[in-house]
Design a protein that fits this description.
Length: about 130
């Protein structure tokens, strides 16, 4: 779990540095793509959950520790990390345009959810890598 904490901190810090140095900017097209990917991943996890509840079937490779399963988890981890860029952009535009005080909670909640998602996906990746190694 400690590796996941340090990995999450490294990913979050790297995303902040990339945002602050303007390497990655949250354009409207970027935000639309990230939103679409997040909704797609959410539907994938929801489908997997429902299938496990009502049938003996599962979404192939999503929970496997093989190379494809590890690749899928890496892709989802990248998407989770890129949501931080959208969160940082939301905060910056809110301060630039004088958003109301209650919007601070939305911004903080967005970052919190992104960091928790990164932590969970990092745990999942470390678990799959450990199982693949054995």
């Amino acid at each position: 779990a400690l590796q996941a904490v340090f990995g999450t901190m490294a990913i979050t810090g790297t995303m902040y540095v990339m945002y602050a140095s303007r390497i990655i900017r949250p354009t409207p097209a970027f935000n639309k793509i990230i939103f679409g990917l997040v909704v797609s991943i959410m539907l994938l996890y929801l489908t997997s959950f429902v299938l496990q509840l009502v049938s003996p079937y599962d979404v192939p490779f999503l929970h496997s520790s093989g190379p494809i399963g590890i690749g899928i988890t890496c892709f989802i981890l990248v998407v989770a990390a890129l949501t931080l860029i959208s969160d940082f952009g939301f905060i910056e535009s809110g301060t630039r345009y004088g958003a109301p005080k209650n919007m601070e909670w939305y911004a903080a909640f967005g970052i919190l959810i992104s960091v928790i998602w990164i932590y969970i996906e990092t745990l999942r990746l470390l678990s799959k890598l450990n199982a693949y190694r054995d």
